[in-house]
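User: I'll paste a sequence; please echo it back and then give the predicted structure.

Assistant: Echoing your sequence first, then the prediction.
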Amino acid sequence: MFKRLFYTLVIILSVVSFAFASNTQITILHTNDIHGNIGESTAFWMNPEFPPPLGGAASLTSLIKEVRANIAKEEDNHLIVIDVGDFWQGTPVGEKSDGRAVLDFFELAEYDMIVLGNHDFDKGVAAIKEMVAYSKIPFVTANLRDTVTGEYPEWENLQPYMIKEMGGIKVGIIGIITDDMPTLLPADSLEGIEFLLSGTTIMKFRDLLKNEMDCDLIIVAAHTGISYNVDNKYKENIELQKLAIAEGLQYGTTQYVEYVYEKKGFGLQDHDLTALIPGIDVLVGGHSHQGLYPPYEDPRNHTLVIQAYSKASALGRLDLIVDDEYRQLIGYKSTNYTPFTDSTAPDKEVKKKVDEYIWEAEKDLRNIVAVSATPMTRGNDETLLGSLIADAMKEEYRVDFVLFNRGGMRADLPAGQISGKDVYQTLPFGNTAVVIDISGRDIIRILQIGFSGRRRDTQISGVRVIYNPDLETKNKLCWAAMEDGTPIDLDKTYKMVTSNYLSAGAVGYQLLTKLPQNDSFTPLRDVLSIYLKKLTPLARKLDGRIKRDRSAEMDPDFQIQLDHLDDDLTAEETPEKKKEIFTQ
């Protein structure tokens, strides 16, 4: 209550506070989810027809330098510059330079620290370890453990926390990566590393920094993602608290947080962490690609949550006012800079270096591969782009069923001319096509995972489905059949193709890891390019292969098929397999 009063008074009467109190201002500049987008781009979301130009890393550098110069003029003002992960994967220049193009930008812009994001591991542990060692800027991520030693990884330039002293105020910063790492990447990409729970890791280092290192402020830089429904999330945490108290657990303890993890069954996001863990002043976020302005203030602990927009399209700023006597956060203000080239001239040194990197990385991607009458867009359920990619895979490998995931698509294909670079940016992860022999039973189980589970981002070809997300049963799939409407034969062996990402069990598809696989080692973006050249000019429409119907009831014939699946599980005595279908 006392801390809440401080916040309110400073926000309303900031002029009075600054005039009569001795305060230190700490400014946090932050970026996240750059995904290799360091070149020039456009603010297409503002005006798709005439989008304002953005200067990318070069204009971000100019902004950072300008803020730094202004802060240096004030004796009691101090600056921290943070990137919150997913820095390199997503563009030709990010991938082909092994992240070095982005790391060079961080060095020239004088960042203070970088947090590891989930996509930073896309080339495997050895590759990101080399990037971390190359960087002149320290990487800060606490919830990692070496599976061989059982200790914190001994990587050059990697540390769990950072301490900054600013005008007598001691600030401890803890880096955190998402709890969902084991489900977001194949196991072989993470070999040798495991990920500790973000919540209990934060508590451990919070106590270390406060009690042993005498830090006055605790900042968490977390690549964990914001909630898109904060009100419901907060109510959910209150209900979990009631259950925990009934179990004799005390709020704010490690046991309490572990109990919440167990009940939720999946990783925690920014708003969960700030609701569960007292003693954090600020959480600087990443992973969601969505700016959060003004900051979210947790109702209980008054922790501030901020996040910038992604792909170098924004620079977030949070100014913290700290009382020098009590060493407490007493006020804040925030803003979000957009690096427009007409208002922020690109830094010449950074632009020259970035342009050289990009020219080398994109020299083979400038040719036009197709023309489209309309943009091929992403979205929920059936999408033009998802169906296009799945159909390309189906035709190339002459299979019965295709499974792809929405998360594998990172950009829409534009209307008009489509270049090799456009295809690359749509499918930047380098995933390859994997052919699998699969039973009809397992096709239905896969569809249940895709349309009944937590993610529901399935893209398909060769089959059609109807599902109702409001069904009270765990299974939400009401009907599924082959694309011509014939039932899926449970006893028939079909051929399917998917990405090596999904075939390795990512995003809940562990079922696929148990089936014989044949990796073609052909990148999916090559498969898509071949298909686009055949189809050009494109004029595609949705065909109804995925139908979300909140009034749909279970098809009686399909229910019989599901009953047979349940009989199989009972006979096999594998309740874990049944649980796997519905809990991803």
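The first strand starts at residue 23 and ends at 31. The two ends are 39 Å apart (CA to CA).
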